[in-house]
Structures are given as C-alpha cells and as structure tokens.
Amino acid sequence: MAHREALTYREVGVDHAAISRSLRGFLRAVHPPRPSGHGRLKLGPGHFSGLLQVGRETLAITTDGVGTKVLLAEQLDRWEEVGEDLVAVNVNDLSAVGARPLALLDYLAMPRPEERVLRAIGRGVGRGLRRAGCGLVGGETAVVPELHRAPDLSGTALGYFPPGRPPVTGERIRPGDVALGLPSSGFHANGYTLVRRLVERAGLSLRSPLPGGGLPLGRRLLAPSRIYTRALEALLAERLPVGLAHVTGGGARNLARLNPKVGFRLDGWPPPRGLFRWVADLSGLGAEDLYQTFNMGVGFVVVVRPSHVDRARGVLARSGERNVSILGRAVASPGVHLSGLGVRYEGY
Fold it and tell me: Quick one: pLDDT band at residue 1, thresholds 50, 70, 90?
C-alpha cells in the first residue's frame, strides 16, 4: 500500500502532551483531602488504579471508558464488542496493580432509550464479567440527547487483594528485570479517533475485507479488548511479577508509569503485523507516533526477575498465553527506549 501524507493523533484532536498538561493542572487545582474515617490513600493518581486501605484491607479502584470505538459500533450496528470492552478496560487496570476484580459499576449515557442496543451491550458486558470473574453491582443509565449523539460507555471497577498478596506497584523493579509482552487482539479501545479518520480519508468500506480476505474490516476493528485476568491471577498466585502495565492510551509510554527511578530498554517488541502493519501503511506515521498511539500488538506487560522468566512463561502458557514476547529489560535511567526503532519516550 502506498504511503500517504502522515495523519497524526494530534491532528485529529487527541494531543497526548496537552492531555498530560491539562491533567496535571486539574490535579493541582483539586488539592484532594485525605480520605476520612478509616480510609488511607496508599497509591493515588498516576498509576493504573488507586489503592485505598480501609481497616486491614487494601482496595483498588479505577475508572475508564470505551471512547470513540462506540462510533464504529454505531456505524456497524454491532454493540456486544464494546460492552465487553467496557469490562476489559477497567478490570485490566485492576490487574495492573495486582488486584483481583471484585465489582463493576457501569455508566451508559444514551441519546435515546433503545432496548435492542442496551440488550446487546449487556450481552457483551456479561461475557466480559464472566471472563474476569467480576460482578456487576450497579450503575447508571442516563438519557442525554443534548450531550450525546451516540452512546458513551464507561465504568468504575473495584478490586481486592487476597490474603498474602501485596499490591504490585512497580516500586520493586530494578535494572536487569525482564519485561514480557502479552499479545493484544487488535487496537483494544485506543486510537479509534485516528483509525476512523484514516478509514474515511482512504474511502475504505467497513463491510469489505482487506486485501487477502478474512473478516470485513469493521469486524476486525471491533474485536474486543482482551481480558488478562486469568493469566495474571496465575502469575500473582506465584508472586512472580514485580511490575505490571496495561498498554492503553500512550502505548509503550505506559511503562514509564511503573517506577520513576528506572526505565526500560525494549528491543524485542514484535514487528507490526495484521492491523498494525495496515495502520502503519495507511497512516504514514513514524515509529514514535505509532508506538505512543497504539499498543502495536502488546496489550499487557509483565516485569519479572531474570531468574523467573522461564517459570513465568510456563505459568502464562498453562493459562493460555503461549505467544509471550521478551520485550527487553529495565535499566537504571528513566524513560522508555525502543532501541531497535530509535525511539525514546522520557515519560508518560
């Protein structure tokens, strides 16, 4: 496929640097008080989940949404996949601090009440909850036609730590530790503002397959986010991870969230294949933009001691994760360096 003039995430309205600056301003303005009563904040904003100690128990809590992938679902009138995404984006963030998913609350903002659409979303949410071993304890469905022309799906999830399991925050990572990559199923729930614009610009049909056959393009783009709970629970039961990262918005930059005192030199990220090769060709983007916009084939990263690599890969294989990549190692200098691509990210 011939290269076109590059179209970046920033040019379609999603500027990662501006978002980071704005969030820093928001947090400075909030000046959050300490939790009252028996609660004590153990890990605040900036990580994948917040940690709150209540009495003797530590709870993890996170919130996230599906984003503009719902516009693709609307175009195709297929809703189950984004229902599953709603669960995945939240429970994977709980797993990224070593928590076991306990409960989810959903927030569905709708332009109009459509029973058929809500029923399909519900089937996807139910499938995701079963895969994560998580319960639905409540939520809110708001009909707000003046705010939304398409459904907006988000949720909040609560997790806990079984007896004897400490949180995994990344503070134990040290130089030489090994980063293992678990494959993604596609773009998961990130980068769709750019993907949809690229499809529109190229005049592609969502209902036709890409060259080489297979499912229609729209079906491939809608593939739900993988839920990694089962495999990570097996690793955590063995107390193998010293760091965990859910590769979401920000791509490879997410590893910078784990420990400000170390960085990562990654020379083993799998080469782009399938949809990732397609989006690279279609967008004309260089590696720096691609690997901070998309997960580029790796949906979750597990950091382990060098002596535990073979054991961790064996546990993952028995849990169904047989295509695990050795991405690289932790290093003494902060930042994330994709050495084979000449790309370095100084922070998240």
Answer: very low
